[in-house]
Amino acid sequence: METAPKRGRDVPPKKDKLQIKRKKPRRYWEEETVPTSAGASPGPPRNRKNRELRPQGAKSTHILKKSRISKKPQVRKKPREWKNSESQRSLSGAQDPFPGPAPVPVEVVQKFCRIDKSRKLPQSKAKTRSRLEVAEAEEEETSIKAARSELLLAEEPGFLEGEDGEDTAKICQADIVEAVDIASAAKVSEEHFDLNLRQFGPYRLNYSRTGRHLAFGGRRGHVAALDWVTKKLMCEINVMEAVRDIRSVASVSSQFLHSEALLAVAQNRWLHIYDNQGIELHCIRRCDRVTRLEFLPFHFLLATASETGFLTYLDVSVGKIVAALNARAGRLDVMSQNPYNAVIHLGHSNGTVSLWCPAMKEPLAKILCHRGGVRAVAVDSTGTNPLHRKSLWTFEMDTHISTFGAELLFASLVVQQHGPDSDLAFGWSLPRYMATSGLDHQLKIFDLRGTFQPLSTRTLPHGAGHLAFSQRGLLVAGMGDVVNIWAGQGKASPPSLEQPYLTHRLSGPVHGLQFCPFEDVLGVGHSGGITSMLVPGAAEPNFDGLESNPYRSRKQRQEWEVKALLEKVPAELICLDPRALAEVDVISLEQRKKEQIERLGYDPEAKAPFQPKPKQKGRSSTASLLMRKRKVMDEEHRDKVRQSLEQQQELQQQKEAKTKPTGAWPSALDRFVR
Q1: Is the pTM here over 0.85, yes or no?
Q2: How far apart are CA 313 and CA 326, in angstroms?
């Protein structure tokens, strides 16, 4: 008979389950339960031998449970707390002394913020309120990102300061060239960029939107385009056009279109378009005797002013004339555009300036500016730079929101919240000033924010024949062979006409002026050629690489053209106040409602709609409720139609009673009564 073996003889003893479990390793960044000596710094654990020989704590230590494997006391586990990844410790054991994102100054955020949260929309619908809340949250996040990314704008605007009591107008260009760096001096030095072309002058010039290319045309038919930074000539041709009159403006004026690949030239008879190689692509004979050209980049419209008094809009994307408007003011030789709303400003010989858009056959507004004819008009472009306006930018390399579409969507919400007259509807600062000069030798600056009142006036000795604004609000005026530049006291203030900022004398009379975008350079076309001046603080120091990149490649330019064509703004949206696009047309709504009441004979919105009461036993189905609603509506409709017919009959009877003679019976001879 077999007996079970006894423990300890033939069968090995079973191992305890706690001994089989592996010991959980302790990381070096975990806190030690054994107290360390004062002043000792926490560090990586020692080897196992030293750790086992470490003295134990006091016996009064509260021990919940002792392990049979480790002699160390176990600590009660705390519930798991969810923390941000920034507040957790790193692998090195050190903790971030500044957890979370970097704080942004409130003043910087307010500069990019466009919503006043203190004003709320009263009695708004739930859907509208939710959309406004989402828009406010997105705008707040975007403004914080924009404020934090402002550190990436490393360039700062230039400035010119004289010594104590020194007048900056007495500083000549040679002194400025000696004081600036070599790169800036190369842009203006006479040996690098001062074209002496007396044979074909006087000249008019035009810079591209990126500020990289320059096109100029002379009165005697000379047309050229070049990369003025590298001084590489792109094309040079002579159109061989005769001059009709010596008193006329340039018979050849050139204008870049949406990119430097196309060039529009207003020649003696017709409008011609060339490419950057000087090859003629189009001859537009419907635009004849053109004197001035303006291109609207976001609408792809080329506006032309002619001697016949017509203002013509040509859509260069499809080659179609959008509108041809007769100004009825004689010859048009003064024209400028407002970059904020794309409205064309025309100066006339009777001293008025008219504002035009292609959707209206009459001017939007007329401003009486001078007692004589208007010689020059210029509109301030401050606030229209993509980095200068407070629009919906994320400042990320892979994200770029459409400027017009995003701002129009946001404006529709802000108009509902703050009203149509609020400046928050469009976040960037509006171009506020228009400068005009006339035959009365006066230079005036007008406010374009609805008042159209002159802010400042100055009488010049010879009168200004050409005006231009810079990106930062500097005003330049060409008076004979002298160029004067005025600067404002602050960023949002108009130019102060009391004391000029800079003065320069040329070798011939001024015939064209324009500031170079994103460069402190002023290009002047005169009878002797082209002169480049250095004007510190004239241009925006930073540019948007996705909108106007002077260093873009050919592939980037092609992609930008495709995107610009897809985002082209229709010509019908050009108006005096673009914020009106997001407003509700109250007059049209009231007129439509009135016509509906006249057509139906009653007001359908005067009484609340009938709501049937629910019934039991299956009599409250959807079909039965709808039938009951229709029955009540038909009865109300019949009653109201009956009442309206009775009223019409009463009115008809009253009219007949008035026209019916009160005396004897009518006679056949009454027809001869006078």
Answers
A1: no
A2: 12
